[in-house]
Amino acid sequence: MSLFDWFADHHKKASILRITREAKEIDGLWSKCPECSIVFYRKDLIANSNVCSNCSHHYMIDSERRIAIIADKNSFKPMNENLLPTDPLKFRDRHNYAVRLKDTQSITQLTEAVITGVCQLEGLPLALGVMDFRFMGGSMGSVVGEKITRMIELATYQSYPVLIVCASGGARMQEGVLSLVQMAKISGALSRHREARQLYLPLLTHPTTGGVTASFAMLGDIILAEPKALIGFAGRRVIEQTLREKLPDNFQTSEYLQEHGFVDYIVQRTALKSTLASILRLHGYTA
């Protein structure tokens, strides 16, 4: 076999292997890491909290999976599930907002872009809010703001610490100023929570942007973030055009924000629960 034939045969086998792997990914058996291209058995990936064991890439995960990682088994009790979004402004563009809400609820089996409730974490009490990017990009509408505010107010009354897992594109434009008001409302609830000397921890995940970043995502007593998460207010291109200069390659990543003092600690998802438990105990919370 000539060298040319060897390369041709090798390329053919590699292509067949790639196609086979991609086919198995579609079947849900395997998953290929988008960072290092290593292929994993999906059950092993899930068992590792959806983190690549080769390069530590953190896959985006849904709210149900995040609650399972953080809360003790069967301890999470959701609250305000009856609060449903409406279309107060009768917003119309290419999509009918009311129809889009119903379609998104049907696809995700969620009522809104956040799930709130109380749970235990290694036996410690915790008020937990988890945003889900699948629901209209995790955008913050009036119901999202109301659910988070009610959760914080309950935590203040019960003397519980608060953890909000942030994953959002920002304020929901279809609700206009009603969405923007939520920034102030949640911030006010957090201020009263702090006056009661209770702990608030935001966990910034990929992505955390817009009005969420400009409000409760950055108001934590200790601001946590997952590795390489996109965190910012305006988009990179907008900032570059405004400043008329090139930004660093790692701009708006968790690592860049930690280096510049906006993030206190970057925590691996596999170590999240133990890290949170240590922080809660350090601040005097007991089972």
TrEMBL record:
Residues making up the signal peptide according to the UniProt record: none
Transmembrane stretches, by residue range?
none
InterPro entries with a match to the protein in the record:
AcCoA_carboxyl_beta, Acetyl_CoA_COase_Trfase_b_su, ClpP/crotonase-like_dom_sf, COA_CT_N, Znf-ACC
Q: What is its EC number?
A: 2.1.3.15
ZnF locations on chain (C4-type): 33-55
Q: Which Gene3D superfamilies match?
A: 2-enoyl-CoA Hydratase, Chain A, domain 1
Record Pfam families: Carboxyl_trans (PF01039), Zn_ribbon_ACC (PF17848)
Keyword terms? ATP-binding, Fatty acid biosynthesis, Fatty acid metabolism, Lipid biosynthesis, Lipid metabolism, Metal-binding, Nucleotide-binding, Plastid, Transferase, Zinc, Zinc-finger
Bound cofactor: record note: Binds 1 zinc ion per subunit.
Provide the family line: Belongs to the AccD/PCCB family.
Subunit structure, as described in the record: Acetyl-CoA carboxylase is a heterohexamer composed of biotin carboxyl carrier protein (AccB), biotin carboxylase (AccC) and two subunits each of ACCase subunit alpha (AccA) and ACCase subunit beta (AccD).
According to UniProt, the name of this protein is Acetyl-coenzyme A carboxylase carboxyl transferase subunit beta
Organism for this UniProt entry: Paulinella micropora
- From which lineage does this chain's organism come? Eukaryota, Sar, Rhizaria, Cercozoa, Imbricatea
Name the gene for this chain.
Answer: accD
